[in-house]
């Protein structure tokens, strides 16, 4: 018996969350088509699922318009590498995962080669740069969206779309309970625990972590016994965590690679806007969303953004359920004030937990990666 090669899939993702989703997608593809051949741009999760890496995303992911200029030369080189690979061995389907400033340059290239394009995890065009919708309409065979409100937006724009649900519903495991996690890091599980999540990109950690550490000091003066756990994203340099290393007066631990256990154990989280806000919602952890970019990026982005709220929990809920402290509002005093309120006002914390339970229900049922894999394979044979 001769084994028949499976479809060739090219994947492109450019940050930690996209890499996580890519890895889960490839695992789901392999369960349905064992002979599938996957290559692409990603990281450890994509490679761990059996894909051949054309390049590693680390160092490409930054926040802000001005910050993106610093990685342009590397991005152009990586784009040329992917294009050359696609021309040399034409894939049966191309899967772009979020990361629009990079992936949008690949869409016309792959479409021009006659490769069906599936866009998994929508770029936030509904928040800003809506003009890019025509690019998707021209080049994308199928949008696979993970937030329920996105489907109607693409339907109105004439882009074929399917809501598959959020992959984190399946990918948010708690590996360590509160008691074990606290004791393993010299903390007391009986005392309040505040999770600090400064983000997954180096430049956002550099801007946010000093604010969070200063806020922790203020929280300690108002909530006796408060303890802190910094959830460290993988592949970050030790230097960006120097504000924590230099703080010896606070009960503060740093835990790497186990954000879900940290959020499940915490009484309150202070988190950068992004994927972690969805994780916090899935674990029912009351949160404060914070964010800062460079002044020039904020000044430009402020004129382009078309939404009144930034955090995904609020966007999914369709109303403000979580406080957001953005740019000038992101100060140690404001952060501490919101965190202390959630630690001391039980009724407010309970109401937020109920709101977050509603958000979780809207994120779809388990099996998002499986549903995405079915759509990718369907596109590959169409």
Topology:
Layout: E1 8-13, H1 16-32, E2 37-42, H2 44-48, E3 52-56, H3 65-68, H4 72-88, E4 93-97, H5 100-103, H6 107-112, E5 117-120, H7 133-139, E6 142-145, H8 148-157, E7 161-163, H9 178-184, E8 193-197, H10 202-222, E9 227-232, H11 242-245, E10 252-256, H12 259-265, E11 268-272, H13 275-282, E12 287-291, H14 295-304, H15 312-317, E13 324-326, H16 332-344, H17 346-362, H18 368-380
Parallel strand pairs: 1-2, 1-4, 2-3, 4-5, 5-6, 6-7, 8-9, 8-11, 9-10, 11-12, 12-13
Can you give me a brief rundown of this structure?
With 382 residues, the chain is of the alpha/beta class. It contains 18 helices and 13 strands.
